[in-house]
């Protein structure tokens, strides 16, 4: 008879039920991969009586975490309850009970990753979290194992499915931000409080995990320069399109001369760039390595089964380690101390929309402000706005974040209105 | 002092010198990743006196394989000599000497993969070969670890950089097959005997490795239905383009109802498909998993540093295993016995070019031939060819390989000339 590996789930929402389903439906492949029978034994839920539409396939519901922690037939704990404080406590207690943990909880990892990994190592336990970034795309493995020998220079990608869906609809169907948000909420793609998605916080947490792994440097949420899509307008998208760009919520993490910068912001990408073709809820992450050049990982960024697949692949890894007797031996999360890049060293191109009086001399004043900061123009588009005012759209050549901030301050002091400012990447 | 892990190279061509360079230049990251000092100690070459443009960074050249096999300070043997028989013998002897092996040799893996993996396991050795497929893209790790829990349904991709470069030039610049081959040879992208690339043999070997890993089924080179790009004409590309397609040399491996089919052939892809945008020497592999849906891995398919990066990432994996005491424990190559798909069960759409007499009734005869096999048309394009003959281009709806073969035989017997026949994928 095959050895049985017991799994305990904390949480039984969309992802949790997907995990139960995959373990059940892919039973044969699981056995082939691990040589074991991997069985979900218990599931901790808040309310045992609640009607559930997913079959339990023999698992037992409980409201009591101790039922899992004290069950010696349960070897792997899968945390899919979400939230941070309670989830962290349960995971730490699971390690103390010498159990291994798989989680899809990006908030938790971004906030307490190092503490959790240290606790895992102390207890000889495994901790895996592939599902925490870009759902079904095995990007963390790609970074940690596949490109282990290369020096990662930059990671850039679309890591939030909700906002990518919204921006796709806004771009392709001309829907307003408010309209597409309501639609996404109705379809269940966006939460009733969409802050985490639309303000870029979710993407920022994923970039923290990617940057930490990519650069072996422990960065924090506070180190990410975050801007969301709340203020993106149809006019922004149309003018960007006229100049050959499409807008995406892009996370970047870059190392230069030993210092890193991490940002999340609505960013313009040339229409011909592969990231421009990543539509709807799909995610894609570009990795630039010194030796390998550019590679891209593309796939569904969320969704029940893709996310559950990543969780179950982590369970497979843990079970293999259990069989080989190699659990608790993951290499450290981040071995280098953190050095953040100075704003004067963070370079990119920028797209600006400025409203100004349509009078002789104002365009010259605008130009002077840029020249003063040594910024040259790549593209310019001027359009009449109304009888008295003009709209000027500028795409700069590469310039530093510090310089662009100084230009903005200077325009402001000259009564020109900076309507929008976006980074341009991928040219 | 750090533990030193000794590496012995067999072969010192492009990839070998890239390995030496990356180990040297990324020394700090290697130490961080593995906790060891990874040093190339000896390199086996045919001719010690030959002028070499790459620095050796302290490695010692030898013409004698025993210098590596008998050196107990060498733990990892990297085979980058190419070829199959001699390389196989050296690798088997390395295992007997209890050394671990990393190779980039796809021909060897496609032909003798199982034997080598068994020999590795018997001797407690590791054998890794990420670089053998799609150079810098960590696709094998993606298949084996990242999607371990999913049931892989189909793997489809561009896995040969030379032919992709050639087809890109033919499509975008209108160059003939002969012209672009000469150009590729001059640039060093194609060998003086280009057979392995242009006849699809190289791609077929990679598909053998991908199919074996994806389906855990030991398939052989003979199981691949291979067609190369030698007979692709400008006219084919132009007519395909008129109907919205671009041509790529596509490898597919598909499992349906427990049986697999593997093919390599010039294939038409809709221009909007992400694979259509994979240009020049880049590679990309789509993986369709039952649960995850579609994911794609994209990157440089060849080249010194991308390939060397994959080799060195494998060395990192081996060194980690050495430190953890877990070498020689890779799971088996292929645990299921082989079942090949019947031609009547292999379905796809087809693009056909037929030349026929421009007379009343011939088009009806053509149509009847298709109706007889129950094949319906998706697109039709008829053009005059000369005074007496017409060219008809047909794209069928999905049909079986067997049916399309019968139609071809039937057209042939009616004196219609089948000029070209290509599969259509990705719609």
CATH architecture descriptor of the largest domain in chain A: 2-Layer Sandwich
Quick one: which chains have the greatest interface? A-B, 57 and 56 residues
Top-tier CATH class of the largest domain in chain A: Alpha Beta
| Largest sheet composition of chain A | 11 strands, mixed
The proportion of strand residues of chain A reads 25-35%
Q: What's the number of extended β-strand segments of chain A? A: 17
The helix/strand class of chain A is alpha/beta
Low-confidence stretches of chain A: none
Number of domains of chain A: 3
Mean pLDDT of chain A: 91
Features:
17 strands, 6-stranded parallel beta sheet, Rossmann fold, homodimer, 11-stranded mixed beta sheet, 427 residues, elongated, Alpha-Beta Plaits, alpha/beta, Dihydrodipicolinate Reductase, domain 2
Task: Give an account of the 3D structure.
By secondary structure, chain A is α/β, with parallel strands linked by helices. Chain A folds into three domains: 3-135 and 304-324, NAD(P)-binding Rossmann-like Domain (Rossmann fold); 139-300, Dihydrodipicolinate Reductase, domain 2 (2-Layer Sandwich), CATH 3.30.360; 344-424, 2-Layer Sandwich (Alpha-Beta Plaits), CATH 3.30.70. Chain A is built from 14 helices and 17 strands. The first copy, chain A, has helices at 14-25, 27-34, 66-69, 85-96, 106-122, 139-146, 161-173, 177-186, 195-198, 201-215, 234-242, 304-324, 362-372, 401-413, and strands spanning 3-10, 36-44, 60-62, 74-79, 100-103, 127-128, 152-158, 224-226, 245-256, 259-270, 282-289, 293-300, 347-357, 377-384, 389-396, 399-400, 417-424. In chain A, strands 7, 8, 9, 10, 11, 12, 13, 14, 15, 16 and 17 form an eleven-stranded mixed beta sheet that branches. In chain A, α4 (85-96) packs parallel to α5, α5 packs parallel to α10 and α7 crosses α8 (177-186). The model of chain A has no long low-confidence stretch (mean pLDDT 91).
